[in-house]
Amino acid sequence: MANELEKALYALIWDNPLLANMASSMSRITDPKILKGLPSFAAITARDGKVSMFINLEAFSLFDISGQKAVLSHEMQHILRDHIFRRGSRDPKMCNIAEDLSINCTLKHLSLVELETENIVKLQQIMDMQFNFIPGQIKTDDKGVTRYRMLMLPEDFGFNDNLSAEEYYELLKEAGYGKGGKKIKVTFIKGDGSQGQKEIDIDKLLNNQDVPELEELTKEGINTDLLKEELKSVVKKAVEKCQSEGQGNISAELQELINKLLTVKINWKSVLRNFIQNATRFFLKRTTKRPNKRFTDFILPSQKNDPKLSVLTILDGSGSVSDRESSEFFAQLDSMLTQGIEIDYVIGDSEIKMEPKKYTKNTKMEKTYGGTDENAWINFADKKDYDISIVLTDGEFYSTTQKPKKPMLWVITRKESFERIPKYLKKVLMEIKDGKY
């Protein structure tokens, strides 16, 4: 049976070398005792703090080569789509179905397999009895050829193709799955070779499912950050192998998934806070506001850290920074005020005409709707007596940007502009995700 797996990996290289390289490098577990209770014939899961591919060779060997490639491709896409780590607080059992739907509609060309009736019956028995999961459908094409559709598709639930796992999850919830009594019809092969139909109770299957990867990830001592890096390493090495061995181009769809997975997402608020903390100078200040903790009978001066930092904030007044973006930025400045940090601000466009004003929690964004000259802003900041400067802008400027003489952080609101801004400027992108910053 192990040979079946190696043959499938070799065959997948010709169809999709990236996924084949990923699957080849994964730790694989095939012990039937360990696989007991797994909610499918294969899965990407965490065991003993290590990510592995579990695969049931008994079921796997019953598929033809097309079906075997579909199984491997499906599991590798779970990694590329970061499904294990993006569930959040959602129901993990319903997430399993939603994630499968988001993948399977991209594998339709592999999902219809021609099998002997005997093998179809065996597969159905394995799926029903061992895994408590949705069995494959029986489909007959226009020429009368009967095939086993091994993958559950969005059409089974009345959904459209090519949606994200999160979108399918919400559709399942809206349709009432998880609340009891929801069923779908499937066609199956009876023991005598004839076809029959039955209804599958989705909610019963959801309740019976085990989700081993979630159980492992919630164990005390499991470092999910290390597991994430391990999965990213699998993808990176697979990409490098494709490139070094000239195994062909990676499809645009998979490349987009790779970019999303491997791109380091930086929280702009954290960058801003670190920028402030690194620049803050602390002085010991003596005070009599509260008694010294070392003495109970006498009121003596105490000591506390007194932060000293003067900040110039330059706000892009061209009108391209939205009210929402400026509001989020001001919220961070308000937090800085509570730390005793002195903040002044100016409005910049093609030049800075005003003298700095004191920033308060009542400050509002002013728009001049002029042009944008970042060099004028840098010159202005360099001439003023401030410790650091922070710039809020969409980054839409095209002149050659000079290097500031003093520490300056650029908070950029537009991704396209962010990529064009020189790397020698300290910059961070203010990104919106799921409607939040």
In words, what does this structure look like?
Strand 2 and strand 3 form a beta hairpin. With 437 residues, the protein is an alpha/beta fold. Strands 13-12-11-14-15-16 form a 6-stranded mixed β-sheet, with helices on both faces. The chain has a 3-stranded mixed β-sheet with strand order 1-3-2. A 3-stranded antiparallel β-sheet has the order 4-6-5. The two termini are 50 Å apart. The chain folds into 2 domains: 261 residues, no CATH class; 162 residues, Rossmann fold, CATH 3.40.50. About 4% of the residues have low confidence. It contains 17 helices and 16 strands.
Keywords:
three-stranded mixed sheet; single chain; 437 residues; 16 strands; alpha/beta
Q: Layout of SSEs?
A:
Blueprint: H1 2-15, H2 17-25, E1 28-29, H3 32-35, E2 42-47, E3 50-55, H4 57-60, H5 65-80, H6 92-104, H7 108-111, E4 112-113, H8 117-130, E5 137-140, E6 146-149, H9 165-174, E7 183-189, E8 195-201, H10 202-208, H11 212-217, H12 224-244, H13 252-262, H14 268-279, E9 281-287, E10 302-308, E11 310-316, H15 323-337, E12 342-348, E13 357-358, H16 374-383, E14 388-393, E15 408-412, H17 415-420, E16 426-429
